[in-house]
Amino acid sequence: MDTAPADGLITSAWLLIALPLAGAAVLLLGGRRTDRWGHLLGTGTVVAAFVLGLLCTLQLDGRRLDVDLFTFVATGSLDVQAGLLFDPLSAVFVLLITGVGALIHVYSIGYMAHDPRRRRFFAYLNLFVAAMLLLVLGDNFVALYVGWEGVGLASYLLIAFWHERPSAATAAKKAFIMNRVGDVGLALAIFLMFAQLGTVSYDGVFGAVGTLAGGTVTAIGLLLLLGACGKSGQFPLQAWLPDAMEGPTPVSALIHAATMVTAGVYLIARCAPVYDATPTARAAVLAVGAITLMIGAIAGCAQDDIKKVLAYSTVSQIGYMFLAVGLGPVGYVAGLAHLLTHGFFKAGLFLGAGSVMHAMDDDVDMRRFGGLASRMKVTFVTFGLGYLALIGFPFLSGFYTKDAIIEAAFDRGDGWGYLLGGIAILAAGLTAFYMTRLMLMTFFGRPRWEPGVHPHESPSVMTAPMVLLAVGSVLAGFLLVVAFPLEEWLTPVFGEPEAAEHVVAPLVVSILVTVVMALGVLTAWLFVGRREVPVTAPVRVSPVTRAARRALYADAVNESLFMRPGQWLTRALVFVDNRGVDGAVNGLAATLGGSSSRLGRTQTGFVRSYALSMLGGAVVVAGALLAVTAG
Amino acid sequence: MTDFPWLLTMIAVPAVGAAVVAALPRGREETAKQAALGVSLLVLLLAVLATVAFDAGGERFQLTTSVPWIPDFGVDFALGVDGIALVMLLLIGVLVPVVVLASWRDEPTGHRSMKTFFAWLLLLESLMVGVFAATDVFLFYVFFEAMLVPMYFLIGSFGGPRRQYAAVKFFLYSLVGGLVMLAAVIGLYVVSAGELGEGTFAFDALRGMEIDPGMQKLLFLGFFVAFAIKAPLVPFHTWLPDSGAEAPIGGSVLLVGVLDKVGTFGFLRYCLPLFPDASRDLAPYVLALAVAGVLYAALLAMGQSDMKRLVSYTSIAHFGFIALGIFAFTTEAATGAVLYMVNHGIATGLLFLVVGMLIARGGSRQVGDYGGVAAQAPLLAGVFLVAGLASLALPGTNSFVSEFLVLIGSFPTRPVFTVLATVGIVLAALYVLLLYQRTMHGPPRGVLLEPSPETSAPATGGGGGATAATATLEAPPPAPARLRVRDLSRRELAVAAPMVALVIALGVYPQPLIDLIEPAVAATMSDVGADPAGVSPEAPVEGTD
After folding, report:
1. Does A190 touch chain B (CB under 8 A)?
2. Rounded to a whole number, what is the distance in angstroms from the first to the last CA of chain A?
3. CB-CB: which of A149, A585, A611 is closest to B394?
4. Which candidate, B32, B38, B19, B12, places its Cα nearest to that of B112?
5. Which of A381-385, B8-12, B140-144, B539-543 bottoms out in mean pLDDT, i.e. has the lowest?
6. Distance between CA B23 and CA A432 in Å, rounded?
7. A612 to chain B, minimum CA–CA distance in Å?
8. B433 touches chain A (CB under 8 A)
């Protein structure tokens, strides 16, 4: 379906980006003068963007509208327009980003109340929202890339927000670098599209995918996947995401759970025409999804840091989304639906975790929590609802959207379908285990608090967003799958849904998933709930636990494969450059004009007169030669 | 307005300014600074007005002035600019006042006077304008060589502890390059005498000549070596880290920002149009040097402990990108390369300036002597970050546009080289963020540390180890370490603000500059036989380079 020029309110869709961007600019340039009201402005711009986004969405009516802004770069045959595409897919993301974003801004007013740099925090959050909106609204790959690296910058700034902590500074750098590895893939994909098709706009590329050789389409698909893996913390670039928890918790909720890290899923769904044409690249997406969802689930089982558990859970859940979009047309909607429900419940879980940390003097070690249910009732209930939604408790959000992914996997009908479906069900059991473990260690059992810690409920500016997200966690699945199907809303993007032939009856899948989930919960209760939780982590544990604690040695692999050889190479090259290249040239100079050590000690006067006479000398030489020639 | 001798004025004004400043009586340092600032701002105004007078869609060379100079050998004092030269003049116009302002509080070393410093600076500006504005090859050569003199004195008289070594090294490298080029310039004259009946140095006349392929290669190499030393390509680069590190900050900015661009400008203005066959034949070798430089210099930058050397190495990597864009022979890539020349001057200039501001506070160039500055000096850290992000070509900054154009334009003709260069964007992120983290993030540390009143620091640069050590002592934990560091002063803000504004403005809306640059680039591309209209889609992609 072709795009049409925007009309009505949608012509001002650029305001969606401009509002939070202006907020960031005012807060950054305004300096201390804006300290008193900066957080209000920051929140206001995102709320305004949400309202505008909602109004635009109501006017959309299933169309794909293009907003042309200005010529960004045009030279030779390259023509990059700064333009926005407002279609059902981007509308869904606009609402998620600005909706969840607005709630998290409100929450941050309370969470960051005592931070002397709160104004800057809101500036960076606004910058993030602007970049993320550009990412999903751009109508071409360059605009996407600008937003893509823009959110990377915001993520860097926010992970390193407490930059006095070396761990935060290092985590921020790690996130940026690993993202850039992915960005190389995205950049090369864009170069390849331009070289082959002469365009980088969505319409131009997607319209001409059919004319490309199969190998080229596959290459584009794989390169885009590399970019998606970097941004979404997927294997083999997953190691940065858990470290990113060094950032303030609202950041973890908004950027590293609900929105930015799902950009990879958006990219693949947006590029559906490319992936539809290349089964090989689709298979790679499936493999990445399946591997990552297991890695995340296994690592999540062995973490003691409440945010790390949620972070590995995010890695794992995005793995589900990759699995879904890797299935092709049957999976796009399922993956996006899970992305949206995950946005609600994971953001809610992180805000709840932040509320718990607030109560526990910023401690994150669950071994020192326990028995918080009675002290923090609102946090407990909202977190509990998010927990149930995540593990797929019947009729809550995760139940609908995760089941849809598993069904779609089985619907492949081949052995791979069963394998992928089996992995997804197994990981659902692990999810239930690690989340139940988290609940038990945090809210139940005997308090294991550090001396001097007096847990208390958070202020309502924090709990109100938690309540709203909890409501979303409960209802979103039903709304998106049953009441107002996302599938119908997205039909203009992905085409009419095919009537699926179910290999395994959906009811059977649901029962199976629910049983496995219950087993996970039960196991957690047997191993964690019935026993006293040791305040220090046991040292003598099985190799499996040890591997899970270290997230299957991802950091160790990266360090020994890239970091240390890189450092060694750098040191060797510095030596070579100082001794070898420079030495060789100095040696040459020495043979021509005396020893190289004398070069350094050459008398000033000598060189100065040399310098001044040089110009004259050169002219004389030239003149003499010319005289000979002319003569 | 087009009849006004813009270029001649732009050369004369700073030259006269230099003479006036030099002639001021001793002790009139303040007057010298103010005069230098005034003159350089006047040149900026002239550059802007010249740009207004320039018609992007018109003739290639405009604002021309020509007077016979050495009629016997056909040498004219011929000036004129195309879009490429014009944007370089704008860059000079912007950078010199910024540099003057940045050097305002510099203390001269030894018995030198800052009056002399500003005089050399203005003379350098005059010669830099000349080198880009010359349309006579011999005149270009004269400016090319003469430029060395003020820069030599800026480094040798006003630089760091090893300034003598650096200045001599700079001088000898440039001299060798210059002499090789002189031979080629004379050779070109001889060839023109044979081809055209009468020897000439006029660029437009030389451009159309059919030169014998063997001769082309020789002459190409003569020019190429000079330019490859100037905009250092690996392995001709080792003078730059020394000069960049030892020069006073203002000198470093103009050295990598403008002076070195004469090399890449020379590739585009002289090597490609005058020796198209040789350029095509030798392009793979040049590209190999360029891409090797992108990766090699980036790795070296990571390994530097001296901040100014580090920035110098990043520039060598950036020159690799520029050379890639020029020798890929597509309009997109070469336009990107020219834009890169401007953007690099702004971005790396800003990085040098902010590094200089940090060094002015701590008195050390070593990365390891700083830490945790961001907490105490957020403005300084913010400007540092903007400069760093521009250096790693983050979208939204000016450098992104040029780097992206170079890469996307080079990919269709040179996929393998482009893929290798693209890996450089990860290395760029590494060297920038490592530098930023070490100096700006983390706990307060290093030479800016306020000595703790009760317990004196165990050793210089104790850092993390010291905290661990004191924890085991019986003494009460020392008061948290604090940095004694001023944030940016008003003058420093006035230096940084226009540069930051340009970084962002040209990152968001670069098209006006592209419109200026493209016609001249397209003409150059047709000289080397490439389609000036740019890459045609589904062009057969060469499998190997």
Report:
1. yes
2. 76
3. A149
4. B32
5. B539-543
6. 83
7. 7
8. yes
Write out pLDDT tens, residues B124-148: 999 999 999 999 999 999 999 999 9
Segment A313-319 mean pLDDT: 95
The DSSP secondary structure of A284-323, one letter per residue, reads: HHHHHHHHHHHHHHHHHTT--BHHHHHHHHHHHHHHHHHH
Does the CB of A213 have a partner CB in chain B at under 8 Å?
no
- Chain A residues in contact with B541 (beta carbon < 8 A): 195-196
Establish if B160 touches chain A: CB-CB under 8 angstroms.
no
Q: Is the pLDDT of residue B290 over 80?
A: yes
Give the pLDDT of residue A584: 64
Average pLDDT of chain B, as a whole number: 89
The confidence score (pLDDT) of residue B456 equals 44
Helix axes A141-159, B398-410, angle to 10 degrees: 130
Asked if B350 contacts B383 with a C-beta cutoff of 8 angstroms, the reply is: yes
CB B319 within 8 A of CB B301: no
Tokens of A357: 């940390």
Task: State the burial class of residue A161 (Cβ atoms within 10 Å of its Cβ: 0-12, 13-18, 19+).
Answer: buried
Asked if the Cβ–Cβ distance from B199 to A183 is below 8 Å, we say no
**What ipTM does this complex have?**
0.91
Tens digits of per-residue pLDDT, B208-232?
A: 888 989 899 999 999 999 999 999 9
CB contact under 8 Å between A145 and B332, yes or no, is no
Residue A57 in this model has a pLDDT that exceeds 80: yes
Question: Residue A84, SS3?
Answer: strand
Domain ranges for chain B, please list them: 6-451+482-527
Rounded to whole angstroms, the Cα distance separating A141 from A29 reads 30
By the CB < 8 Å criterion, does B252 face chain A? no
> B32 CA to chain A: closest CA distance, Å?
23
* DSSP codes of every residue in B362-412: HS--BGGGEE-HHHH-HHHHHHHHHHHHHHTT-TTSHHHHHHHHHHHHHTT
What's the first-to-final CA gap in chain B, in angstroms?
A: 48
The residue length of chain A stands at 631
Number of Cβ atoms within 10 Å of the Cβ of B184 = 24
Q: Is the peptide bond before A116 cis (omega within 30 degrees of 0)?
A: no
Name the minimum distance, in Å, from the CA of B3 to any CA of chain A.
30
**What does pTM read for this prediction?**
0.91
CB of A491 within 8 Å of any CB in chain B?
no
Beta strands B62-70 and B75-81 are: antiparallel
Q: Look up tokens 């050793």; give the residue.
A: B459
Q: Are A348 and A382 in contact (CB under 8 A)?
A: yes
- Plot region of A594 (φ>0 → left; ψ -120 to 50 → alpha; else → beta): left
Q: Are A389 and A398 a contacting pair, CB within 8 Å?
A: yes
